[in-house]
Amino acid sequence: GQDPLFIFPKDKLVEEGSNVTICYVSKSHQNNISCYLEGVRMQGEQLDPNVSVFNLNHVAFIRETGTNIYCKPGQGDGIKGTVLFVSKVLQEPKDFSCETQDFMTLNCTWDPGSDTGLLKQLSQSYTLFESFSGKKTLCKPKSWCLWQVAPESQDMYNFTLTAENYLRKRSVHLLFNLTHRVHPMAPFNILFKNVSATSATMTWKVHSIGKYYTLLCQVELYGEGKVTQHNVSVKVDGAHLFSGLEPDTEYLAQVRCANGDYFWKWSEWTHQNFTTAEAAPSEAPDVWRNVKTVQGRCVVTLFWKPLSKPQAHGKILFYNIVIEYLDRTSVSEVLSIPAPASGTELPLNQCSSQIRITASNSVGTSPASVLVVSREPGNEEVEEERVKGTEDGFPLSWNPQPRHVTGYLVEWCEQPRDPPCDLQWKNLGPNVTSTVVSSDAFRPGVRYNFRIYGISTERVPYLLARKTGYSQELAPSDNPQVVMTNLTSHSFTLSWKNYSTESQTSFIQGYHVYLKSKAGRCHSGSEKAVLSDDVVCCKYKIDNPEQKTFVVENLQPESFYEFLVTPYTSVGEGPHDAFAKVTTPDEYSPTLIRILLPTVFCILLIMITCYLKSQWMKEKCYPDIPDPYKSSVLSLIKSKENPHLTIMNIKDCVPDSIEVLNKQEGTRKSLTETESTKPTYLYLLPTEKRYSSPGPCICFENFTYNQAASDSASCGHVPVPPKAPPSQLGLLTSPENLLKALEKNYMNSLGEIPAGETSLNYVSQLASPMSGDMSNLPTNPPEPALCSEYKMQMAIPLGLASPPSSGSSSLSSITLLDEGEHY
Amino acid sequence: MLPAAGEPAAGDSWGLLACLCTVLWHLPAVPALNRTGDPGPGPSIQKTYDLTRYLEHQLRSLAGTYLNYLGPPFNEPDFNPPRLGAETLPRATVNLDVWRSLNDKLRLTQNYEAYSHLLCYLRGLNRQAATAELRRSLAHFCTSLQGLLGSIAGVMAALGYPLPQPLPGTEPTWAPGPAHSDFLQKMDDFWLLKELQTWLWRSAKDFNRLKKKMQPPAAAVTLPLEAHGF
C-alpha cells in the first residue's frame, strides 16, 4: 500500500499474562519513529533499518476497548496503531448448586467469577449438561439456570456446567438426588386463634412437596425481649399453641419449614404479629402521701406511680380510692380518679384514716395499696444531716429500727426550688438500712432534701432521718445584698439579713468580708488577702453562716473604703466583683451637728416667738410713746428705793414750763408731803411778765419726737446759743472739756442757787428701765440735789429764744447730762 | 475558514452555564420573542440556538467519558490525528466568506443534513459501547440530538423550506469494514465526536445569525459566543 508504516499484529486478542511481541515495518529509512503503549514510549529492538520489535511480557487487562499501541514518525502527523485486546482469564464456576422447591424445576446457581467480555470478545457463555438424560441447555444468565425436572421421576442428576469464551473452556460437575435438594417455599396464611391473656394458637399453611414428604417447621416467638423456638412437623397445615404469655403484650411469631426427611435448606421466614388480651393488674400501685393541715383539717395529697406494663396487664382506666376513718365516726369515702392521673388531693374529715388505692383496667382491679394517715406527725424533730452526693447518686443510710418495721421509704423532691417539687419516693425492704438515690434530674448546685421514713406494721410512716446535700457543690455565683448602716468616722455596720443560706449552690460555711483601703493596714481580726487582680485588702472571716451582720471598725475618718461580703464554701467563695464604696465622715462633724442643730433650732424658735409676740415686745421694750406707768423702771424704783416716788401727771403740767420742785435736802420727806401739791413753775417763755427781757430762755428739745436728732451726736444739737462765749463752746468739743465744763457749771449753779433749797428734778421721757441707772439714781445724786422735771411739748424757734445768760448755765448742763449719762 | 474548536478550559463549563442562565433570564425581555399573535420563526430559532448551546455542554462531558473509554492517545488533550477514515462525516468547517454568503435555506439544510448523519453514526457508536453507563449517556445524548434535529425542522417549516430528502442508498452506516482496524475505528469515533462538537459550535453561530436577521435591528440582542472544543 501507500502507507509508509505498518504495525503488527493487527487487533490481537490474548489472555492476561501472555507475552506479546509488537513489530513495525517502515517503508522509508526513518530512524526517528517512536512507539507508545498507552501513551508511554516503548523501547524496542531494531532488527533492521526498517523493522523494529517490542516485547511485551505478562500483559495485563486495562479496559474493554483494548490496549492502544501506536507509532508515529518524527515528522508529519501520520500515526499508525493497533489495539491489543487483553482478556481476563476465564475462571471455573464456583458454588455450583441445584435445588427444587416444587419437584418441577431445578434451579441451578453458581458464581461466575470475573467477566472476560471485551470490545472484541463477548463475555463467557455457560452450558448445562445432564449426563443421565443427555440433555443440554445454554444458560443465558451468567449465574443461574433453570432445568425442567423430568416427568418420569428421575431421582439422580449428574450436571456438568461449562463456561466458555474465545480463548478457554472450564467445567464443573454436580451429582445429586433430587429429594435431597428440596428447598421449600415460605409458609403462608398465618393466623392466630383463641388469643387470651396468656396463650394463643398459631396456624399456617405450606406449599405441598408431595404426599410422601413431611415438612419440619420452625416456629419462633419474639416478645418482651425474649425469643422462644419450637419445631413442628407439618404435612399440609401447621398449628402451634403459645402458652405462658404476658397479658396485653405484642408478640411477633414467625415460621419456616424444611424437608423433614432430608434436610437441605430452610425456607424463608413468614412472620405475623399478635397481641395478647388484657388481664387484671397484678401489682398494687406504689403510693405515697403528703399530709398537711389546712384550717385545722387534714388534707392528704396522694401520689402514685403508674404501673409498669408487666404489672398493669392492660391500659389502666382509673384509680379507686377508699378512705376509711379509723374511729368509725365517719362513713367511708370512695373515689375514682381517671387515668392517667398520678395523684390527687383529698381533704379528710378526720386525720386518722386508712386509705386504700387500687388500679383498674378493663378486666379487673389490682391489689390494694394501703396507707395510714395519723394526726401524730411522727418524729418531726429529727436533726438534719448533711450528705455528700456522688456521681452515682446520694448514698443514704440510717440506723436499723428496734421496733418492727415493714419497710423503709425515702422521699425527696426532684425540683426542690419553688414552686415545683416533683415528689419522688423509693420503697425499701425492712432489712435495708442504706440505699443510693440516683436520678437523671439531679443537677449540680441544687440542694436536695431527703426524708427517710420507717413504715410500721400498722402502715403508719414515721420520720427517721433527714438528709440534705448536693450532688455536686458549686461555688456561690452571687454575693449577699449588703446593707450598710451606722456609718461613723471609725466604723460602719454591714448587714445581709435577706441572704438565705438554704437556697445556695453549696453549703455556706461562713462569710469573708473584704475591705480595701488606701492605707492598706489591716487591724486585728483581719488578715491581708490578695485578690485575683493583685489588689491587697483586709479579709475578715465570719465562721457562722447565720451571722449576717458585721461591724467594720478601726477605720480612719474621712477615708475611702471599698468592701465586699462574699460567702465561702468548701468549693470556693463568691465572685470578687462589685465592691461597695464608702467614705467615712469627718470626726467632728457629728459633734458639731449635735450642737449646731439644737442651737439653730432654739434661735429659730426665739425668732419665731419674737415675731409672733413683736407687738408685745415692742410695747414692753421700746414703745412708740413711753408710758411711765408701764415702765418697769418705775416699779423698780418704787419697790426698792422710793415707794413715794410719783409720776407727774400730764394733766397737771402747764405746757412749756418747767416744774421746779424745791425740796430741802434734809427735810426731803416733809417737803414732799407739804409742798408737793403746789409745785413751783419756772416759766421759760418770755411772755411771762415776771421775766422781762433779756430773761433766760432754756429750750429743751424732746428727742423722743425727733429721732434723727437723738441718733446724731449730742454736741452739735445742744441748743447752744449762737452767742455763747467762745471759751465755753470750745470746751464742749471734747468729752474731757465737757466734763470740766459740767463740773464748773455745776459748781456755778450751786453758787447761784441756794444750797439745799431748790432742786431741779428731771424725769427723762426716754426713761428706759435700766436697772443700773436706777440703782445709781439714789446713790449718786448731784449735790445738792437740785431736782427739776421738764416736759417740752413744742419746739421753740431759736430766734425767739434769748441768748443764754450765765444764770441759765446750770440748766444747760442738766441737758448735757441727760444726753451723756442718761440721767 | 472558521476557527477550529479550541481546547477545553477548566472554567469553560461554568462560563457556559452562566451564559445559558443569562440567555434564559433575558428570554422574556426580548421584545421579538414576546410578540403576541403569530410569533413567527423567532422563538423557535431562539430555542434551537439554546439547544445547540446545551448540547455543546452535554457533549463536552460525554466526549470526555468516551475518549477515556478509548484510552490513550485519544483522551490526550493535544491529540490531533489526521482525518483519514472519517471522510464520510459531514464537515463543519467552511470558508468564512462562503459561510457568510449562505442563504437561510441552505444554511438550515446543511445543519439538518449534518445532524441527520451524525445522529446515525452516533447510534452506531452506542451499539458498540461495552459499559452500560456509557450506553445510557450516549442514548440520552442521541435523544437530545434528535430533539435538535426536530427543532431545525421546525424552523425550516416556519420559514417555508422543505426538508431535504435522503437519497436512497446513501444511508450512512457505521459497520467497520473488514479492512478497518480497531485502531482506525477508534480514530473514527474520535473524529465523530470532534466533528459533532464543531457542528454544534457552528450551529450556534448559524442560529444566532438567523436570529439577528429575524429581529428588528433595535431589538437585536447580542449574545456573546465563545469557541469551545474538547
How many distinct beta strands of chain B? 0
Task: Please give the largest β-sheet of chain A.
Answer: 6 strands, antiparallel
As residue ranges, the low-confidence spans of chain A are: 666-823
Instruction: Assign a percent range to the helix content of chain A.
Output: 10-25%
Largest Cβ-defined interface: A-B, 25 and 17 residues
Main location (chain B): secreted
InterPro entries (chain B): 4_helix_cytokine-like_core, PRF/CT
Function (chain B): In complex with CRLF1, forms a heterodimeric neurotropic cytokine that plays a crucial role during neuronal development. Also stimulates B-cells. Binds to and activates the ILST/gp130 receptor.
Protein name (chain B): Cardiotrophin-like cytokine factor 1
Describe the protein in words.
Chain B: It is found in: Secreted. Chain B: This is Cardiotrophin-like cytokine factor 1. The complex is a heterodimer of chains A (823) and B (230). Chain A has 7 domains: 5-87, Sandwich (Immunoglobulin-like), CATH 2.60.40; 94-180, Immunoglobulin-like; 188-275, Immunoglobulin-like; 286-373, Immunoglobulins (Immunoglobulin-like, Sandwich); 384-470, Immunoglobulins (Immunoglobulin-like, Sandwich), CATH 2.60.40.10; 483-583, Immunoglobulin-like; 643-800, no CATH class. In chain A, helix 8 (735-752) packs across helix 10. Chain A contains 10 helices and 49 strands. In chain A, strands 40, 41, 42, 44, 45 and 46 form a 6-stranded antiparallel beta sheet that branches. Chain A has a 5-stranded mixed beta sheet with strand order 2-9-8-4-5, with no helix packed on it. Chain A has a 5-stranded mixed beta sheet with strand order 31-37-36-33-34, with no helix packed on it. In chain A, strand 15 and strand 16 form a beta hairpin. Chain A is elongated and about 190 Å long. By secondary structure, chain A is mostly beta strands. Chain B has 230 residues and is an all-alpha fold. Chain B has 6 helices and no strands. Chain B has helices spanning 12-26, 42-70, 96-101, 104-128, 132-159, 182-214. The model of chain B is unreliable at 1-11, 27-37 and 218-230 (pLDDT under 50). Classes of the chains: A mainly beta (823), B mainly alpha (230). Chain A binds chain B through residues 10-11, 36, 38-39, 62-68, 70, 77-83, 85, 117-120, and chain B through 69-74, 76, 80-82, 128, 130-131, 181-183, 186.
